[in-house]
Amino acid sequence: MKARWLWLPALPFTLAVCSFAPQGGGTASGAQQALRASTPASLQSVNISRLYAENCAHCHGDRGQGGGAGTRTLLTEEKFDQKLDREFFDAIKDGRPEMGMEAFGGSLSDEQIWGLVVHIRELQARALREKNGSPRPVNGVYRSQRAAFRVETVVGGGKGLRTPWAIDWLSDGRMLITNRPGTLLVKDGDQLKEVQGIPRSVEIGQGGLMDVAVHPNHAKNGWVYLSYTEPAPSGNGGMTKVVRGKIEWQGGQPRWTSQQTIFQPDAASYTRAGVHFGSRIVFDGKGRIYFSTGDRGQQDLAQDLSRPNGKIFRVNEDGTIPSDNPFRQAGQLAAVWSYGHRNTQGLVLDLEGNLWNTEHGPRGGDELNLVQKGRNYGWPLVSFSINYNDTPFRTPWPKEGQDIVMPVFRWLPSIGACGLDVVRGPAFPEWRGDLLAGGLSGQNVDRIRVRGGQLIEREELIHGLGRVRDVVVGPDGMVYVALNDPDTIIRLAPAR
Ligand code: HEC
User: What is the rounded distance in angstroms from the CA atom of residue 205 to the CA atom of residue 63?
Assistant: First the structure.
């Protein structure tokens, strides 16, 4: 099968060069005049689809297929590339006067212009999906760009899975699964056994029992970490909390014991909002853990270093604060490692020790970020997204004086980024070191190769099998995927 969604190395954004050399004494062409007349100020407030329909479609086509005024189609894989984001933005703002397209910078705001780029990305994604379809197996074998694999069912539907959120493995090889409504399961042979006595969580919206992460030295110390939405003491709402405990077997049944609190959010941060709980937990193998929270629907708090919303934290494995954490001043949460995150639901350390996250944008602009100590990831000051209701939101690029880290990759449109791991182990040597990222609404698992901080290639491995909640490379090196809708655990197994 032909490899899809393949990107070349990311290039620095280039500015569109406009050689404005008007013919005939600098008068606008007929098309330009007609266009200006049809761009009333009232358009400033309308939604982006309508902006496109009224200002662009007569040349670029209602779906971006081109044809009017000598335009070419925008619906090619070559044009569906993040390295053209800036070029598209500049083309709309400054126009392509030599080709008959006027500048829209005078009549549209930067946010509207960026919204039009997002609109074009949505049109492209739809058209390319229609044209290419999803990766499909032939005689049961998927042939991706570098490796062939089969999709196998590990835990089928109807087997006690209810919105499975995360998977990991005990040191004895048994799989652990969290169900978001609040149960932790151990796969014991063909049976799923519920661990008794885990802390009480509350499933509000996207929250509930979330990540499970087994300590790398579990065989010796027995620690298992959980993140979950702790109900507010008042019973109203909740907030992300992290604990660790041990699983002991009593009469063949697993039981949660020895619990310790690793991260306790302050009382003021509990809210009834049902969105953005973050929650992935990662070990650095040197005595520390990283974990994430979402903004809990309060965007601006992602920029507030005194509040736990929209952060990635680093603490010692027992929850105490490492002395070299970046924010140690009064009024700052000393556990914070990086900030300005909307909702990190993918977090992993790669084989070189770099920390990566994936996080959700609103409509468009999910991000893959290289997470660095003390840095600001921009939410909600900059964003590749538009609002869900199709109105403009932000522009992606930091303004003068804003010290914001840009993502290495942005998904436009969104995939609902959830679950991130790095390929290691014996099963897929061809993918070794690559990142695997899942998507809920995108129903996809992408393989992403980054070298030296730059995106080298990306391809979709599977699509349309269910909402991808977690992607985890197992002890056997196979790629395990927790799906919601239908609730199942599948794995990608090498086919040779
Ligand atoms: C009068 C016709 C016309 C109108 C109206 C027009 N364009 Fe264009 N546009 C062009 C032409 C011609 C080009 C040159 C590239 C090509 O061949 O398609 C172009 C180029 C572009 C490019 C760069 C594409 C590339 O491949 O580099 C973008 C993006 C774009 N237009 C977006 C828009 C948007 C958004 C609008 C509406 C706000 C718009 N255009 C309105 C004619 C038009």
Answer: 34
